[in-house]
Amino acid sequence: MTRDLPVGVSVPVKGFENKKIYVWIEAVSGYYSASKQWEKETGGDASACWNEDAVSYYVQGKDNIPFHTIVWPAVLLGIDIPALPTHVLSNEYLTLEKKKLSTSRNWAVWAPEIIERYDPDSIRYFLTVNAPENHDSDFSWREFIYSHNSELLGAYGNFVNRTLKFINKIEDFEVRQDDLDQKILNEIGTVYKVAGRQIKALSTRSALVTIFSFIRHGNKYFDEQQPWQLYNHDRNACRKTLNNCLNMIANLAQLLSPFVPFSSQKIRTMLQLRPFTWKPIDYALAKPQNIQPLFARIDLSRIDEEVQKLHDQEKA
């Protein structure tokens, strides 16, 4: 448990003053000490996190598996805490442009810089759908930008934008629950159940794929119903189509809020939705307001720019 190091947490035992606690004893113990600190600062009670009925999720890379499955349970047993890890989610390795990430060689994408240049939801989406859950995967600037333009902008953003803008053009549009198609409501309920099971089973990538499959279904429904044609000869059918699309969007914002929270919050504001939960939203309560695009297109020239920047910083 100890190391001969000049820095670190000193061992509070006589005769061990020059020893430091092994970093992985210290690090995993932080889970418990952080909860005790939270209790001290808030007056809350974290005991439910540490009793024998607690369900815990530990998320890390595969090189940290021994510390969470051997060292940490040993520490917990040593201090008579029965809450041993129940779920250990360990990802494989992520490479960068087919090469091993290396901060020492500066072959890396630095979080503060990428957040400055790109939508945080785009980053979150790509890292989740491309996560190395079962095998190593690669971060490619080409794939990242194409993913944003085709999935977030082209599929999700397009469905939201054209639906809400169309509704906004109809001055007498009514949000009505009796317009909703029971088949679509059942499909929405199924997405919650399937995606929920996948998240609980620690397969967040599969959950995101499930939700985006429903987004493509929504786009297909919009195209097949052709509300722009219905508007000229069947206003009731047009309103029903748009209300179904509006309800799909409200639920998609809620379903996607764990993955792309910023765009979900935009929709929640535009549709004046209640705080998000994990059960189907019956229907949007009001006509959309202050419509704004969820995402902007990323120019493909950025691919070569970002790859060149990688090479330049590695040489620097």
Task: Describe the protein's architecture and organization.
- The protein is 56% helix and 6% strand.
- Helix 8 (227-233) packs antiparallel against helix 9 (235-256).
- The longest helix has 29 residues, at 141-169.
- The relative contact order is 0.10.
- Strand 3 (57-61), helix 2 (65-78) and strand 4 (87-91) form a beta-alpha-beta unit.
- It has eleven helices and six strands.
- The strands form three sheets. Strands 1-2 form a two-stranded antiparallel sheet. The protein has a two-stranded parallel ribbon with strand order 3-4. A two-stranded parallel ribbon has the order 5-6.
- The protein has helices at residues 23-42, 65-78, 111-117, 120-129, 141-169, 182-200, 204-225, 227-233, 235-256, 261-271, 301-315, and strands spanning 2-3, 20-21, 57-61, 87-91, 94-96, 137-139.
- The two termini are 39 Å apart.
- The chain is globular.
- The chain has 316 residues and is mainly α.
Give the termini separation: 39 Å
> How many distinct helices?
11
Helix percent reads 55-70%
* Secondary-structure element series: EEHEHEEHHEHHHHHHH
* Proportion of strand residues: 5-15%
Label the structural class.
Answer: mainly alpha
Helices and strands, with pairings:
Blueprint: E1 2-3, E2 20-21, H1 23-42, E3 57-61, H2 65-78, E4 87-91, E5 94-96, H3 111-117, H4 120-129, E6 137-139, H5 141-169, H6 182-200, H7 204-225, H8 227-233, H9 235-256, H10 261-271, H11 301-315
Parallel strand pairs: 3-4, 5-6
Antiparallel strand pairs: 1-2
Helix pairs in contact: 1-2, 4-5, 5-7, 5-9, 6-7, 6-9, 7-9, 8-9, 9-10
